[in-house]
Amino acid sequence: MNDLKRIVLISTGGTIASRWQGSGYAADAAGAEVLAGSAVPEGVRVEVVDLFNVNSSRMTTRRQLTLLRTVHEVLADPGVAGVVVTHGTDTLEETAFLLDLHHGDERPVVLTGAQQPYGTEGGDGPGNLCDALRTASSDTVRGLGVLVVFDGLVHAARGTLKAQTLAAEAFADPGAPPLGRVGFSRVDLYRRPLRPAPLPLPRAVYAPDYADAELPRVDVLFHHTDGDPVLLRAALAAGARGLVLVGTGAGNATPEYAQAVAEAVGRGVPVALSTRVAAGPVAEMYTGGGAVDLAAAGAVLGGTLRAGQLRIALVAALLADAQEGADTAGLLASLVDPGAPGGGVRTDEAVAA
């Protein structure tokens, strides 16, 4: 019994815990119920923490920070071999990235979920959970940071997005292959992810008034045909502390947007630039309100991060740089591009067969 690897399962809700409510599905099942429907890999002992039970669309920054704090508290126990988090798929990519930005432990944290509700005959939840438990208990993935395990594939947190609304193979990185695969009672790893040096835990999560503390508002704005900066200025008026602009193409908008970005940056509100295109980096190619002008106005180019994860990077930078006079934009740039000098701790390298 003492030889079993202890894996802590933190349950947060999502489809994997959802049951029919009369008009639709909603998170309802406790972590122990979800676990009872799954096989547990040989040599693993699971302990369950029911943190909260919400649909993924109801995830908030405060809940994500509560989960971040809980993961760190769990890993304070040296007897824990790894952590699995069950989570709704809609915002899983954001939560995984936030955890990864603050994760410096060698032990794995693995997020998983389901596309089919709890108790569905032939549903994918039990298999995904079993694979996640196997991955979290594997020495192969030590030092890789936070992972997403879904439909037999192992993904890095960074860059992994929900790519299918309903299909079983829900997650993918548009710019890179999976890290590995789970199967035949083992985890096969093909490459190691690129990651920045981990951030310390935000001071906010341990503040006595955490439950009522104000957290930074970061809004996302989507450029489109006839788009103008009316909503950008409305976000500023609503108290936004940071903004993510989702441009067209390689990160383009209009001269009016560039002017509004300059106004925001001049007021101390950082702006990050992403793109609505599925794959590829943001790049300074076009003027006339394009990324050339947006960067000149002070926007931080988001590299290959899409809007959800770029927003998380900006939230993390704001939380880390809460003190007066901090360089939020500089920290954000280092989180966006771990390959920059002094930014990364690991290289994206193939693993020898």
TrEMBL record:
Whether Methyltransferase counts among this entry's keywords is no
State which residue ranges cross the membrane. Answer: none
User: Which catalytic residues are annotated?
Assistant: T15, T89
Tell me what reaction this enzyme catalyses.
L-asparagine + H2O = L-aspartate + NH4(+)
Q: Which InterPro entries match?
A: AsnASE_II, Asp/glu_Ase-like_sf, Asparaginase/glutaminase-like, Asparaginase/glutaminase_AS1, Asparaginase/glutaminase_AS2, Asparaginase_C, L-asparaginase_C, L-asparaginase_N
**Which residue ranges does the record assign to the Asparaginase/glutaminase C-terminal domain?**
217-320
Where does the L-asparaginase N-terminal domain start and stop, copy by copy?
6-193
What span is annotated as the signal peptide, if there is one?
none
Q: Which domain of life is it from?
A: Bacteria
**Enzyme Commission code(s) on record:** 3.5.1.1
Q: Can the keyword Phosphoprotein be found in this entry's annotation?
A: no
Q: Which UniProt keywords apply?
A: Hydrolase
Q: Indicate the family of this protein.
A: Belongs to the asparaginase 1 family.
PANTHER family in UniProt: 60 KDA LYSOPHOSPHOLIPASE, L-ASPARAGINASE
- State the name under which the record lists this protein: asparaginase
Q: Which organism is it from?
A: Streptomyces polyrhachis
| Lineage of origin | Bacteria, Bacillati, Actinomycetota, Actinomycetes, Kitasatosporales
